Amino acid sequence: MQQDILINWSPQETRVAIIESGAVQELHVERTLERGLVGNVYLGKVARVLPGMQSAFIDIGLERAAFLHVADVWHRQADGEPPAVARAGGQPQVPIEKQVFEGQSLMVQVIKDPIGTKGARLSTQISIAGRLLVFLPQDDHIGISQKIPSDQRESLRKRLTALVGEPGGGFILRTNGEDASDPELAEDIAYLRKTWSRIRESALRLPPPSLLHQDLNLLQRVLRDLVTDETQSIRIDSREQFMLLEQFGQEFMPSAAARLQLYKGERPIFDLYSVDEEILKALGRRVDLKSGGYIIVDQTEALTTVDVNTGGYVGARNFDDTIFKTNLEAAQAIARQLRLRNLGGIIIVDFIDMQRDDHRDAVLAEFRKQLARDRVKTMAGGFSQLGLLEMTRKRTRESLAHMLCEPCEACVGKGTVRTARTVAYDILREILREARQFNPREYRVVAAPKVIELFLDEESQHLAGLSDFIGKPISLQSESAMGQEQYDIVLL
User: Fold this and answer.
1) pLDDT one-digit tens code per residue, 307-342
2) Which 8-state DSSP code applies to residue 115?
3) Nearest-CA neighbor of 142 among 181, 172, 167, 179?
4) For site-directed labelling of 418, which of 100, 141, 287, 447 has its Cα 20 to 30 A away?
């Protein structure tokens, strides 16, 4: 399946859309202000050593000094070296005052972003992430991700050891490298070693504090992670970023850089395939199918549910065929929505019930065929006794909705709010509760306009009855800034 990659760049945000068969299949977004420091490598200067806390403060050029704890200081123990302070895991740990000193230049990597008044947390063990591998330049260990099944790890370790060749740093195979070919792994090894070589050169040339290596931004990750053999073109709408990306690609990924193109059209690049309209649709619950049917996508904390409905589709010769054709179309649309919305975890799909086994088999085969195009690992089972299809999709990053949206202030993420009448009755009960504890001159209800209108009209009799019962006047104040569920009872 041939694909095109569109890149819309602005100083505040980078957006990448992957187009297949004229339709948007994936969307990646990175915002400048939300980019963290984790993964960045600095040449820092030790500002202060605190033996009592077994930590040190390192100046890496940020507003606040960063924090280095003794547990994050990499130390290769020499043969016969006596153990000092025992670490929790049983490994010897040399006191920090014997490893670093004030004024020392130190290469460090950020492992935790600054939060509030706390500076970044650092480690002296450098690790550089590639698409398939993680490079550990200070170690010689060849490791395999624990998430890969244990029966496959040994064969993968032998393959990786053979590709790495002579010792010169350790490598860990990431989960998404489980099915990678030898040429793909070799390309990642070469990229990581070249990156480390540049970091070392910069460390010798630059004074502390200096940034030696920044984790790849989204533009660079497009070349590293998203380009495949099926990619025809990579179009970007910024001349400056095109030149920077071309320079990066020619050095590290020449085959991907050859497909780079500068977009010079007058229309915004995302308008070519109505990408912004697709984003708006992907943030909604309902997705309409061309036949007239539709699917409903609901994302919850534990899982995502997808419900298929025939809607207004009555085009087939009989009811069974109508259901079958709707389910077939839905199978394609669901696989696309999972990629576009980047939904991960457990996913339950409720296709319309099919009576015929051959229809169920055909829908399942089509669904698995569409899922096979996904770069993220997916697993789909068969239909359960209840007619539901269970599947999983690996979580790689935040979903589109979590990235672009936030919970509604009115419903706080529930998706519904209590009716004005329900809130009005809550207020009546609250006034009665307050009357048993306090003895004010008057009660004033401050609430949303709909709730106040209800008290002035249909619920006026109940409000008057409560006022008589407690022997105190109750006044009303409408507040348009309040949500329907919000209210205050003021004691005057």
Assistant:
1) 998 877 665 567 788 888 999 999 999 999 999 999
2) B
3) 172
4) 287
- Whether the CB-CB separation of 310 and 293 falls below 8 Å is answered with yes
CB 468 within 8 A of CB 475: no
The SS3 assignment for 358 reads helix
pLDDT-flagged residues of the chain (< 70): 75-92, 313-317
CB 45 within 8 A of CB 207: no
Residue recorded with tokens 């457990």: 346
CB 192 within 8 A of CB 253: no
CATH number attached to the domain at 3-35+217-275? 3.30.420.60
CA 238: distance to chain centroid? Answer: 25
CB-CB contact of 157 with 102 (8 Å): no
Give start-end residues of each CATH 2.40.50.140 domain in the chain.
Answer: 41-74+95-213
Which tokens belong to 190? 């070469």
CATH superfamily of this structure's domain 41-74+95-213: Nucleic acid-binding proteins (2.40.50.140)
Q: Which amino acid is at 315?
A: G
Which is nearest to 404 in space by CA: 340, 477, 324, 486? 340
420-491: in CATH 3.40.1260.20: yes
What type of residue is 446?
Answer: V
CATH 3.40.1260.20 domain residues, the chain: 420-491
Residue count of the chain: 492
Amino acid 215: pLDDT: 83
CB 316 within 8 A of CB 322: yes
Tell me the three state secondary structure of residue 53. Answer: coil
State the DSSP H helix or E strand holding residue 491, giving kind and residue range, or none if neither.
strand 487-491
Query: By CB neighbour count within 10 A (0-12 exposed, 13-18 middle, 19+ buried), where does 482 fall?
Result: middle
H/E element holding 454? Answer: helix 449-456
d(CA 226, CA 176) in angstroms, rounded, equals 13
Q: Which of 42, 52, 208 lies closest to 119 in space, CA to CA?
A: 42
Other CB atoms within 10 Å distance of the CB of residue 206: 13
Per the structure block, which two tokens stand in for 126? 């450098």
Pairing of strands 294-299, 286-288: antiparallel
Quote the pLDDT of residue 76.
Answer: 56
Nearest to 172 by CA among 205, 134, 207, 123: 134
Helix axes 460-470, 449-456, angle to 10 degrees: 80
Structure tokens at 13: 């945000």
Whether pTM exceeds 0.90: no
Q: Are 392 and 345 in contact (CB under 8 A)?
A: yes
Extract the tokens encoding 72: 């994050």
